[in-house]
């Protein structure tokens, strides 16, 4: 598959950070971005060590573009860290939203969305799509 580098009608180059909109499903980008933004807030709101919890997105079986995001404990047998996400979700969404809105980057950066150790290699991330889901919960 050839990487698309410009917009079809105008011929203008695709702005940096937006290329992934042509490479990944918008559903995948939104869920993955949301998960990263929640992880960013998890340290602040629930005082969870990010080495104890992680997040990944899985494409569901079938021909649909259905994806599911999973927060999970990183230790064998679990450690309860992922439970904090569900216990504090509205607060986490509000804090993650504030972090993203306060960040002056365009599409996402290490301050607001990029996560060290992302199992998906920090691909399919866009701050604005994560904000759509955060707004729905916060």
Number of strands: 2
**End-to-end C-alpha gap:** 38 Å
- H-E order: HEEHHH
Rounded to an integer in angstroms, the radius of gyration calculated over CA atoms is 16 Å
Low-confidence spans: none
Fraction in helix = 25-40%
Please list the strands of the largest sheet in the order they lie side by side: 1-2
Largest sheet: 2 strands, antiparallel
- Beta fraction: 5-15%
Apparent shape? globular
Number of helices: 4
**Helix and strand composition category:** alpha+beta
Estimate the mean pLDDT confidence: 88
Overall description:
The chain has 138 residues and is an alpha+beta fold. Helices cover 37% and strands 10% of the residues. It contains four helices and two strands. It has helices spanning 26-46, 83-87, 89-102, 127-137, and strands at residues 53-59, 67-73. It has a two-stranded antiparallel sheet. Strand 1 and strand 2 (67-73) form a beta hairpin. The protein is globular, with a radius of gyration of 16 Å.
Give a summary of the structure in a few sentences.
The protein has helices at about 25-45, 85, 90-100, 125-135, and strands spanning about 55-60, 65-75. It has about 140 residues and is of the alpha+beta class. The longest helix is centred in the first third of the chain and has 21 residues, at about 25-45.
Which helices and strands occur, and which strands form pairs?
Blueprint: H1 26-46, E1 53-59, E2 67-73, H2 83-87, H3 89-102, H4 127-137
Antiparallel strand pairs: 1-2
Helix pairs in contact: 1-3, 1-4, 3-4
